[in-house]
Automatic annotation (TrEMBL):
GO biological process: DNA integration; DNA recombination
Record domain Tyr recombinase: where: 198-368
Protein name: Site-specific recombinase
GO MF annotation list: DNA binding
Record keywords: DNA recombination, DNA-binding
Family: Belongs to the 'phage' integrase family.
């Protein structure tokens, strides 16, 4: 039993008189939270008195009902009986996996994000399942289907890449359990990822300039640095970049990629280097990107608002600046291997598969270089 948040809705999970797990939604807001807490307490009190007592009806809760909202009333997944001593639950295994990440060099912010995802997305569904008794067909197929069929935080259907990423996280937790001997099976074994539809990036240099004209100063500066250095946006690279990583004498930026745990050196254009010298004199946090003297943990909202004000109607994200960084250089004849190094790819094939297909006319230009035989 317990109250938890799912995509902004307050939920309560409990087991009914038959032992079947139920998840009940109370909507959004403070009133919904009060209802959820009251319902959870009533269920807990009933269980203490007698496990056979029927569950309290929601109309006995004094808190006023929230306005009707579209919600998922119950999560109906196959329930399995959990017996003491049967083995480690997913919740317990996930907790040990997070502890493992903390001592393995994973950044604190990444660990916190994963912990929140586990608590809000995974544990409410499979947290109390004993891992050694779980199977791919009975447990993981319904788990994946649930995320494919329900909306995410933005009240929109989750994309296939998001669903695949959830599966990857859970698979990593199961693999950790098997490798360390905490569990004996990986219920995700046998899973085949659904093919992801390639994303059509429409952002142009002219549109980047339009967005920057309508962006807040710190967002505009973040966009310029991201595009000029080809960094991954967010705290993995762009927002983690410090002035200590900038060598003004050599005109280079030393970028640490937390994704690959490697450093790469990116030359800085004279124009950007001059702006960096000016910005550094006003900096208070030690970070290249800051707001009101403090480092920034997220910039998506500010970027999205700038896009709206600029009248950009097609889907666009900060990561598209990195994409544009690569395709612009390649279209102007830059060496593929050099671009790959600037992006921080360990293999040129990664650069080719992700970016080269976007260059229209390259195959025609290559064929035109052949000499005439007649």
């Amino acid at each position: 039993m317990g109250v938890y948040d799912r995509d902004g809705r307050w939920m309560v999970f409990y087991h009914d008189e038959t032992g079947k797990r139920r998840d009940k939604s109370f909507g959004r807001g403070e009133e919904a939270y009060a209802q959820a807490e009251a319902f959870n307490k009533a269920v807990s009190d009933a269980k203490k008195l007698c496990t056979a007592l029927p569950l309290p009806p929601t109309d006995l809760i004094s808190s006023p009902a929230p306005a009707p909202v579209k919600m998922i009333e119950e999560i109906t997944l196959p329930e399995k009986t959990i017996q003491s001593g049967q083995g480690m639950t997913f919740r317990e295994l996930a907790g040990k996996y997070l502890a493992h990440l903390k001592v393995s060099g994973r950044t604190e912010n990444n660990t916190k994000k994963l912990a929140k995802m586990i608590d809000n997305q995974f544990n409410p569904i499979i947290g109390d399942r004993v891992v050694n008794s779980m199977t791919y067909i009975d447990d993981m197929v319904p788990f994946i289907q649930f995320f494919q069929e329900t909306n995410g935080k933005q009240n929109r259907p989750r994309s296939q890449p998001t669903v695949n990423r959830y599966g990857d996280y859970v698979n990593a937790i199961f693999n950790f359990g098997v490798t360390t001997g905490l569990t004996t099976v990986n219920p995700m074994k046998g899973r085949k990822k659904s093919r992801e539809k390639p994303r059509d990036v429409q952002l142009t240099v002219d549109d980047v300039k339009r967005i920057m004209d309508h962006a807040e100063p710190h967002v505009r500066w973040a966009m310029e640095v991201c595009f000029s250095l080809g960094t991954r946006p967010g705290e993995s690279e762009l927002l983690a970049l410090k002035w200590d990583h900038i060598d003004f004498d050599k005109g280079i930026a030393k970028i640490y990629a937390s994704k690959t745990r490697t450093y790469r050196v990116v030359p800085i254009s004279p124009t950007l280097l001059g702006k960096m010298k000016e910005v550094k004199t006003e900096s208070q946090s030690g970070y290249v990107i800051e707001w009101r003297g403090q480092p920034i943990g997220m910039i998506r909202k500010g970027f999205r608002r700038a896009c709206e004000r600029a009248g950009i109607t097609y889907p666009v994200r900060m990561y598209d600046l990195r994409h544009l960084f690569a395709t612009t250089m390649l279209s102007k004849g830059a060496d593929l291997a050099a671009v790959s190094k600037l992006l921080g790819h360990s293999m040129i094939s990664t650069t080719t598969s992700h970016y080269y297909h976007c260059l229209e006319g390259e195959k025609e230009r290559a064929v035109s270089l052949l000499p005439e035989l007649m």
